[in-house]
Design brief:
Blueprint (H helix, E strand, L loop, with lengths): L13 H7 L4 H15 L21 H12 L7 H18 L1
Helix pairs in contact: 1-2, 3-4
């Protein structure tokens, strides 16, 4: 029998799920540090002397390049053959990048 109770959970698996999903190690490490600070009651982990730390990227440069190519496509203007050609090229690029 299970019961739903108001309040915080005793455990969280979100960071581990993110790691399993392929989120970069630097992002997972930062999330673990933030979570540890929250679990210890200290609030979010204090920032370093750098007032604006660099934003950690979820995807690499190769992923960004593919995303930009996809965003630039206008599918409604492609013939079926052109669409297959573009798709084959993008798949080939993605496979070579991994």
């Amino acid at each position: 029998m299970r019961q739903i109770v108001t309040g915080p959970a005793s455990r969280t698996y979100g960071v581990e799920v993110a790691r399993l999903a392929g989120v970069p190690d630097a992002v997972v490490s930062r999330a673990r540090a933030l979570l540890a600070g929250l679990e210890n009651g200290a609030g979010p982990v204090a920032r370093t002397a750098d007032p604006a730390p660099a934003q950690l990227a979820l995807f690499g440069a190769r992923d960004e390049r593919l995303r930009q190519e996809l965003a630039a496509l206008e599918p409604e203007r492609l013939t079926p053959l052109d669409a297959l050609t573009v798709l084959a090229r993008l798949v080939d690029t993605a496979r070579r990048s991994s």
